[in-house]
Amino acid sequence: ANIDVAAPTAGSGESQGERPWLTPKHSGTIWTTYQVTPQLRLGGGINFRSSQTPNRNPGWSAPGYATVDLMAEYLINERLTLKANLSNVGDKLYADALYSGHYVPGAGRNLQVTLNAQF
User: Fold this and answer.
1) What's the Cα-to-Cα distance from 87 to each of 35, 49, 62, rounded to whole Å?
2) What is the pLDDT of residues 59-88, one digit of tens each?
3) Tens digit of pLDDT for each residue in 6-64?
4) CA gyration radius for the chain?
5) How far is Cα 4 from Cα 2, in angstroms, rounded to an integer?
6) Helix (H, G, I), strand (E, B), or coil: what is residue 12?
């Protein structure tokens, strides 16, 4: 049996030492919480990403962005906890996924409320 595997052609991807496409140079998340009372905990955070370039079209890039998230948690009793998360507080429009010719927008402002019950 003869197996012939073709090697990738030159120019088909990033050059050695270059940042991969769709990868921002800087990104990160900073989060903190504070126990206000024994029952109440508040938190907040910032998610950030610098500009990124799509594959196959390095002539343009999506701008960097930062979003802010907030959290509140209330201990109702030993078995019940109520929690609210507000994501993207400023309803920032940003490119979550980037392709040649189009982008997928990131999630807008979102409120999630949960009630946790322990049995």
Assistant:
1) 20, 16, 21
2) 778 889 999 999 999 999 999 999 999 999
3) 444 445 556 777 767 667 889 999 999 999 999 999 999 999 999 887 766 667 788 89
4) 22
5) 7
6) coil
**Length of the chain as a residue count:** 119
Cα separation, 93 vs 12, in Å, equals 31
Task: Find the angle CA(104)-CA(83)-CA(90) to the nearest 5 degrees.
Answer: 40
Tokens 């919480």 -> residue: 33
Residue recorded with tokens 């019950």: 117
In the chain, where the domains are located: 27-117
Q: In angstroms, how far is the first alpha carbon of the chain from the final one?
A: 62
Burial 35-54 (b: 16+ CB within 10 A, else e): eeeeeebeebeebebeebbb
Question: Do 44 and 10 meet the contact criterion of CB atoms below 8 Å apart?
Answer: no
Q: Which residue is listed with tokens 């989060």?
A: 31
